[in-house]
Amino acid sequence: MRGYVQEPNQELGEEFKRRQLVRKLVEEFLKAIGEDLSREGLRETPDRVARMWLEELASGYFVDPAAYVKTFEVEEYEGREGFVAVTNIPTRSICEHHLLPFFGYTHVVYIPSGKVMGFSKFARVIKVLSSRLQIQERLTEQVADFLNEVLSPKGLLVVMEALHTCALIRGVEESMTMTTVALRGAFREQRELVNLALQIVSSSKIP
Ligand SMILES: [Zn+2]
User: Could you say which of 3.90.550, 1.10.286, 3.40.720, 3.30.470 is the CATH number of the domain covering 14-57?
Assistant: First the structure.
């Protein structure tokens, strides 16, 4: 799907080359902060860090979240009106300002318009979009835009709550949690729908 994925370089061995490069740069980084690369504990660190970034934390750059989408038709009839809430979706990403993780939960509430999607697909889509350097505000909007596009719901609300380790670790504010909300469709116009959806989210939240 356009706009949601970077074009990968198809050249053979590109993945291998990228891993070698990241590993080398991790070595340089460790040297630059004053570490001794020859000590036992760091022997495998550059390679381990390179794999972690390329296979997990930054694995979303070349993946199209549309690959994980499978929607189902639901019958539409006069008078049918309801919400679907998918809550407590584990979410983790890396803050682009400090390269440190932020993590928490995403909650999605939508009013279907003939289409629904399986529970686990929401988690897959969020995993792809969050496996890139992000700020929570943009990630929330991207999740909302993507779901809005594939489900074409009458209304959509995405709530993301996350703890930012860049704040935690630097002692900025120990218990700071950021909450971001993105609204689409009917949720933008009808305040009472938002209140109801937020009630559903808060009553289904893992304490
Ligand atoms: Zn940060």
Answer: 1.10.286
At 127-156, the pLDDT tens digits run 999 999 999 999 999 999 999 999 999 999
- The residue written with tokens 């509430």 in the block is 109
Q: How far is the CA of 9 from the centre of ligand 1 (A)?
A: 29
pLDDT score for 174? 61
Instruction: Report residue 33 CA to chain centroid gap.
Output: 30
Ligand 1 (single-atom ion) residues, CB below 5 Å: 95, 97-98, 166
Which CATH code fits 65-204? 3.30.1130.10
Single out the residue of 2, 182, 197 nearest to residue 84, CA to CA: 197
How much is the pLDDT for 10? 58
Is residue 38 within 8 A of residue 73, CB to CB? The reply is: no
Strand partners of residue 93: 102
